[in-house]
């Protein structure tokens, strides 16, 4: 299962290596499509990328720092620095291609 | 490789109905979707024109339809279809991102997606104030003023939704009247929080580093260009068909809508198309459901006919 982050632990949990965080909410249909894709990606990608998610309903601070105004938004960080921000539903293959740029 | 009698691609209202009918005819049915079942209903807040329910939330109607397919024995398969090919035995091969399915009949129910405006700034501010889903993003605009572009059912019903969560909604429409159903129109005209800008097209979306600040507009009658301040732009200017993956089959018109007869048959025997992806006049849940019933039944008859032919040959 992909770990649900909160405003409290987001920075710590995404401070090393390559991380991907899916910002979502229960009311958002494309988020509900993105969810299972993220779960599958997590299984396939193993330790290379740390996959996490954050419910924007329960956590408002982190989404605001990133200026998120549309969900799903996927934030990719490398060693604690934001390197990519993807807006909208993305397929597993699309995500793998993007992540490959940062893991190699 | 997994074998089925019928594979339905897309689990919106049309696809779920087709799968239900085929499964109740005792066929082995797979219903594929790249996400959650429900299709465009998931993007709809209140549905008031589906008989049997005075008002129902889109996702809830999707859930109810899905339960019906499960009860009938439909197999829900998660997958993103890459292409469909037909072999010399007339079997259909459905390639997904992770699997291959084989079936005698295929029912295409892939629906449609929001069309973009195609103006400068749209791409740049996507996710920074430009949105195609009011239900998803409306809550980011609490206490703000937003713009809705379009004049059809989606534009007006989502405009009404946004009027509930934002401070004010300005609907910009290129004509002097709306295309939306009268009941929605009246509700929008009666809503104090909704204004209209008629005969006007959005020509550019403006903003600073981080988000949308306004739109540049062109009045089609007077011919002048002005700027309007806004915090968000919700685009509802029609749809385009999700049919690119079937290009190799040559079953669409020039715009990409799949052509069928009134039996939902495409030009390829055993391949049907239903719902929003089909070339037709009225794209609604009710019409998708109607299409689905016809295709599910015809897929059954097609399957029986080939079985019979094979028995005769043997």
Automatic annotation (TrEMBL), chain B:
<keyword id="KW-0676">Redox-active center</keyword>
<dbReference type="InterPro" id="IPR050097">
    <property type="entry name" value="Ferredoxin-NADP_redctase_2"/>
</dbReference>
<dbReference type="InterPro" id="IPR005982">
    <property type="entry name" value="Thioredox_Rdtase"/>
</dbReference>
<dbReference type="InterPro" id="IPR036188">
    <property type="entry name" value="FAD/NAD-bd_sf"/>
</dbReference>
<keyword id="KW-0521">NADP</keyword>
<keyword id="KW-0274">FAD</keyword>
<comment type="subunit">
    <text>Homodimer.</text>
</comment>
<keyword id="KW-0560">Oxidoreductase</keyword>
<dbReference type="GO" id="GO:0005737">
    <property type="term" value="C:cytoplasm"/>
</dbReference>
<dbReference type="Pfam" id="PF07992">
    <property type="entry name" value="Pyr_redox_2"/>
</dbReference>
<keyword id="KW-0285">Flavoprotein</keyword>
<keyword id="KW-1015">Disulfide bond</keyword>
<protein>
    <recommendedName>
        <fullName>Thioredoxin reductase</fullName>
        <ecNumber>1.8.1.9</ecNumber>
    </recommendedName>
</protein>
<comment type="similarity">
    <text>Belongs to the class-II pyridine nucleotide-disulfide oxidoreductase family.</text>
</comment>
<feature type="domain" description="FAD/NAD(P)-binding">
    <location>
        <begin position="4"/>
        <end position="292"/>
    </location>
</feature>
<dbReference type="InterPro" id="IPR008255">
    <property type="entry name" value="Pyr_nucl-diS_OxRdtase_2_AS"/>
</dbReference>
<dbReference type="GO" id="GO:0019430">
    <property type="term" value="P:removal of superoxide radicals"/>
</dbReference>
<dbReference type="GO" id="GO:0004791">
    <property type="term" value="F:thioredoxin-disulfide reductase (NADPH) activity"/>
</dbReference>
<dbReference type="InterPro" id="IPR023753">
    <property type="entry name" value="FAD/NAD-binding_dom"/>
</dbReference>
């Amino acid at each position: 299962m992909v770990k649900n982050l909160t405003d409290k632990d987001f920075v710590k949990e995404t401070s090393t290596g390559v991380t991907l965080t899916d910002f979502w909410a229960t009311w958002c249909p494309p988020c509900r499509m993105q969810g299972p894709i993220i779960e599958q990606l997590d299984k396939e990608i193993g330790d290379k990328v740390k996959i996490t998610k954050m419910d924007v309903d329960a956590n408002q601070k982190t989404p605001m720092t990133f200026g998120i105004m549309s969900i799903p938004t996927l934030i990719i960080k490398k060693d604690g620095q934001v390197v990519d921000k993807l807006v909208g539903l993305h397929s597993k293959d699309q995500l793998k291609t993007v992540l490959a740029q940062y893991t190699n | 490789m997994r074998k089925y009698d019928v594979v339905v691609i897309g689990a919106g209202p049309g696809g779920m109905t087709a799968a239900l009918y085929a499964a109740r005819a005792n066929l082995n049915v797979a219903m594929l979707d790249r996400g959650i079942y429900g299709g465009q209903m998931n993007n709809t807040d209140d549905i008031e024109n589906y008989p049997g329910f005075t008002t129902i939330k889109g996702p809830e109607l999707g859930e109810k339809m899905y339960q019906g397919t499960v009860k009938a024995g439909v197999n829900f398969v998660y997958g993103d279809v890459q292409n469909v090919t037909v072999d010399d035995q007339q079997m259909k091969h459905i390639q997904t991102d992770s699997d291959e399915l084989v079936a005698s009949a295929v029912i295409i129910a892939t629906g449609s997606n929001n069309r973009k405006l195609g103006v400068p700034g749209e791409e740049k501010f996507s996710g920074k104030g430009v949105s195609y889903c009011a239900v998803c993003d409306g809550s980011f605009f609490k206490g703000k003023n937003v713009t809705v572009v379009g004049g059809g059912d989606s534009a007006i019903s989502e405009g009404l939704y946004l009027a509930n969560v934002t401070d004010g909604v300005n609907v910009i429409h290129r004509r002097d009247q709306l295309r939306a159903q009268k009941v929605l129109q009246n509700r929008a005209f009666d809503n104090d929080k909704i204004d209209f800008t008629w005969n006007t097209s959005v020509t550019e979306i403006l903003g600073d580093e981080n988000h949308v600040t306004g739109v540049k507009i062109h009045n089609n009658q007077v011919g002048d260009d002005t700027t309007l301040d806004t915090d968000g732009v919700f685009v509802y200017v029609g749809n385009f068909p999700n049919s690119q993956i079937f290009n190799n089959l040559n079953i669409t018109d020039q715009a990409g809508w799949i052509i069928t007869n009134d039996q939902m048959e495409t030009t390829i025997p055993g391949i049907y198309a239903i719902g929003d992806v089909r070339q037709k006049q009225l794209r609604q849940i009710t019409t998708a459901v109607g299409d689905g019933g016809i295709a599910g039944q015809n897929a059954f008859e097609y399957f029986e006919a080939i079985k019979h032919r094979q028995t005769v040959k043997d």
